[in-house]
Amino acid sequence: MKIYISVDMEGITGLVDHTHVDSDKHNYERSRIIMTDEANHVVTSAFKSGAEEVIVNDSHSKMNNLLIERLHPETQLITGDVKPFSMVQGLDESFSGAIFTGYHARAAQPGVMTHSMIFGVRNMFINDVAIGELGFNAYVAGYFGVPVIMVAGDDCAAREAEQLIPNVTTAVVKEAISRSAAKSLTPAKAGQLLQEKTALAIKNRDKVKPLTPPEKPLLSIEFTNYGEAEWANLMPGTEIVPGTTIVRFHAKDILEAYQAMLVMTELAMRTTFC
User: Which residues form a coiled coil (predicted)?
Assistant: First the structure.
């Protein structure tokens, strides 16, 4: 049994604002220790629950946050940037299940540090389904026939996961008070919860079906201002919906849609205030 783990940072225990997740800020170094230890609780429980191989993908910002020396010795870590499939790099049909930990809810929704890839995105859609990072990554897993068996993060991320993925196991390590405040478990208590929930998720993995993506999906990204839409529209094959900041792309499959999203959001980040 192979288990895939994607680890973001905004949904980690006790982390509530940009000072925790920005490598230039004062809280970052202690936050990456908490992040690594939290990932390791999931990894360790996966091995104890019968996994023969565990791949961990660092999925936050420049994707070099996890401290490899603190991970279970049998862990294989995907780290660094640029990765062709970003938060789901290395995920394929060989895995029995995927676990998303440290995850947050999508842009324009309640929850701690909510966003969708960049802060310039207001909404993302696959056809008519509103998704964030969690949903998009679950669709890629579904393309390979891999179910997302567990999502860990704040209560808002858990609700989003439960709405998208029937029977998914969720682990709530903090409850959002606002976008930059939460009532959080301690790392010790969260670690115990994550180990228990990981074991449960692996035990119940056959109850979770992969989130099957649509064929030839229509990707729509609504940006916060027109300049971002203009930059995103530089990618061949895209179009701006007249009178909006929505950029659309007709993809051949969800993998092409995912990479299109990466390119469009990277371009949009070039927009300046004036």
Answer: none
